[in-house]
TrEMBL record:
<protein>
    <recommendedName>
        <fullName>GDSL esterase/lipase</fullName>
    </recommendedName>
</protein>
<dbReference type="Pfam" id="PF00657">
    <property type="entry name" value="Lipase_GDSL"/>
</dbReference>
<dbReference type="InterPro" id="IPR035669">
    <property type="entry name" value="SGNH_plant_lipase-like"/>
</dbReference>
<dbReference type="InterPro" id="IPR036514">
    <property type="entry name" value="SGNH_hydro_sf"/>
</dbReference>
<comment type="similarity">
    <text>Belongs to the 'GDSL' lipolytic enzyme family.</text>
</comment>
<keyword id="KW-0378">Hydrolase</keyword>
<feature type="signal peptide">
    <location>
        <begin position="1"/>
        <end position="23"/>
    </location>
</feature>
<keyword id="KW-0732">Signal</keyword>
<keyword id="KW-0325">Glycoprotein</keyword>
<dbReference type="GO" id="GO:0016788">
    <property type="term" value="F:hydrolase activity, acting on ester bonds"/>
</dbReference>
<dbReference type="InterPro" id="IPR001087">
    <property type="entry name" value="GDSL"/>
</dbReference>
Amino acid sequence: MASSASLLLLFVVAASHVCCSHGQGGDEGAVAAIYSLGDSITDTGNLAKEAPPGAFETIKHLPYGVTFGRPTGRCSDGLLIIDFLVFCSSCANAAQDMGLPFLNPYLAKNMSFDHGVNFAVAGATAMDPTDLFNRTFSMPFTANSLKLQLQWFKDFMKSTFDTDQEIRKRLQSSLVLVGEIGGNDYNFAFYANKSVSEVEKMIPAVVETIINATKQVLDMGASRVIVPGNFPIGCLPSYLTAMAMPEPSAYDSTACLKDLNLFAAKHNTQLQQAVAALRASYPDAAIAYADYFNSFLSLLKGGPALGFDANSTHKACCGAGGRYNYDLRLMCGVEGTAVCADPSAYVSWDGIHMTQAAYKAMSRLIYHGRYLQPQILSFREKNGQT
């Protein structure tokens, strides 16, 4: 097991409309708004707004956002999966999208929330901080959690709409994403030098927290909800560096750490089972599990065919050298680091988060492929493209 210091920063892991069916052969209706809860995989600027001056400065400046043209508070060189779901008209060869504007972060001022809100915060956990403290390890960077984001969501809806009936009506024409969330709960535990077997004991509580939040969203009136699973963390440059093993047998055929991927798969299996139970309890709602785990593995295995450099699928684009171009002492954006010439050829941006190109490819695999279970989004073609 790696030292606690070596894991310090792992967390900082349709002519423009879409129809969404309610179950098999159900009614269809256009999505009017998207509401998103989650962590850095989804955060479009809340951490940058929330953090005091001097904290998390790297994501507020280039090279973060270099592909987009400016820093936006996203933990990437450009856009995220959520961006490709809501609006891809500005993306090359994009044929399908929801035709909605990018989701503004909840903490932004004087911005429109007419088409949805992003409540996700980089570094956020599923479980409440006090629950994590009781597990004998601390959260060194953020106190944000799914509980707080859910309260933001409720406060926003109550301040925007006059009655619960109006809230239900709005949510019935909306899409709600609960996650990806939970990855940081485990990252903090690994940071505290907990073993894989110890961290596995957290899975039921983390999954229960995600499901309870999803129930609250459904009880408010949401009729279309997506709950994403965790990534194969054993494939990330950060973990490949921090938990490197000398034995070749510790790695699988995709050059990822077996034990960490098995751990992530266990989380996902329990989450999928819980989501399936939700469908039985809420038969009138369309509730889908987004398979980030297998879509990411498909990205690695089919990297060259998707335009990624076969020799760089496990390396960070922005870093300071080493086998995986990841060094926790020199994180992307600080002096001594450099950015690769072509981020679109890389899967990983900074060793923890992915590049815009990778997020775009994953979005296509998930929302237009076989990794949304069941497929509750039925996209229409735009301008004859597919």
